[in-house]
Amino acid sequence: DIPILIQNAENNKRPYIHPIVAPDGKGILTEDQPSHHLWQHGLYIGLNDVNGIGFWTEGLSEKRKLDGTFHPKRLAPPNVNKNIVNWTVETDYRAPGGKHIMTEFQKWILKDMQNHYEMQLTWKLAANIDLRFGKYSYGGLFLRMPYRKELEAQILNSEGKNTQIATEAQRARWVAISMPIEGRTDKAGIAILDHKDNPDHPVCWRADGTFGICPSRCIAGEWRLSKTQTTVSKYRIYVFCGNIDPLAIEGQWQSFCQTEREVTHE
What we know:
Blueprint: E1 5-8, E2 16-20, E3 43-50, E4 53-55, E5 69-72, E6 79-81, E7 84-94, E8 100-112, E9 116-127, E10 131-133, E11 140-143, E12 154-157, H1 164-167, E13 174-180, E14 187-194, E15 205-207, E16 213-215, E17 223-225, E18 230-241, H2 246-265
Antiparallel strand pairs: 1-2, 2-3, 3-4, 3-11, 5-7, 6-7, 7-8, 8-9, 9-18, 10-17, 12-13, 13-14, 14-18, 15-16
C-alpha cells in the first residue's frame, strides 16, 4: 500500500524522486526542501553555470535572476515486470528569457531485491545551442538524505575515505551515506556508483557539510557541448538498510560495470 518511491515531474518544476522508502518499509531515506537548502529535493539533477545560467537554486537564491527553468514533459506510465520497473523523464531546460537551450533525458530502472533496491539511471543531455559548463564545486546527480546534526551519519568512498572533509572534491568510483532514520532502530543508507565509461571517471564528488553527495564532472574543470551534441552518464543507486558495507557496494559496482548493457536491455 506504500509506494517504494515517487517520481515527481510537475509542470514547470524540476523533476525529482522523493520519497524513497527503506527496503524493509521502515522509514523514508530522502528529504524534500530541507530548511538549509530549500531547492533540494531527495534525488535530483542540478547544474551550475551553463553559459552563465544556474539550474540549481530554482530562483530562490540571491542570484535568482540568473536561474533558468525546468519544463518536464508529461510522464508516460511506467513499465512493470515482476520486481523490475522502468520509466523515463524528459525535461526542457530554458534560459531566464525562455529560450530552450538543452533537453535532459532520465531513463530509470528500479529492481526491488527485497533486502535492497538497485536503481539505474542513464542520464542524457542534448544541446540545442553551444553550451559551456563552467568549473564549479558541485553539479549533477544529487542526493539529499534527512541529515540531523545531533545524530551520527556515516560516509565512505571507494578509496576508503570516511569523513566529509576527506571525501569532498575527491575522485572515487562510489560514495555511500548511512544515517539514523526516523521510524528505525538502526541506520539505513544510499550509495551512488559512477560507471567506468562515464566522462572523467572516476569523477570528483561533492560531499557537503550536511552529507549531501553528488558525482560532479564540473569540479575538475569546465567542459563543453556543441549544438546538436549529446553526453551520456550512467549511475547505479544502491539503497540498503543498516551500516555501510563496502564489500557489498564494491560488488554492486563490479556488477554494474560488467552487466550494464544487459540491464539496460531489460
